[in-house]
Amino acid sequence: MKAWWQSLSERDRRILRFAAVPIAILLFWAFLWDPTQRSRRSLLSQASQAEADLAYMHQASAQLQALGAGGSASVFERGGRSLLALADGSAREARLGHAIKRIEPVSGGRVNVFIEAAEFDQLALWLERLNAAYGVRVDEYSLQRGPALGTVEGRIGLVESGT
Fold this sequence. Notes:
Layout: H1 2-7, H2 10-70, H3 72-75, H4 83-93, E1 100-107, E2 110-119, H5 120-134, E3 136-145, E4 151-160
């Protein structure tokens, strides 16, 4: 390397010395400074998003605790209806009365609902409303395609919350 340097003319050596400083600065910026600053901005953005998520979780936690303090009876009030009566009445309200072939009780907190040619979208909305309004959830199900497009048939097991 020293031999190569000595073989250069004085003019070439001077040009290389002056060019080395801007090249070193450019390399420092490209490989160290800029990536570090990009990472810093990204981490600051992630930290602010995490703080916003944490604030939301604190708010949601307070709301859940307030709901829990009210007791599950106030949240899932059924008006004294049994699970069988609730499933039958709410299915009729959801315009699924024609599709319900029978509802049979399995135990005090569980019923099986047998359906034929039920529109899948209406069925899904009914099940979601049952869960949200009354705390009734699907325990097990067995569904097949129905005779018409978008329909299903089979059995759905409904169970009360806490059962």
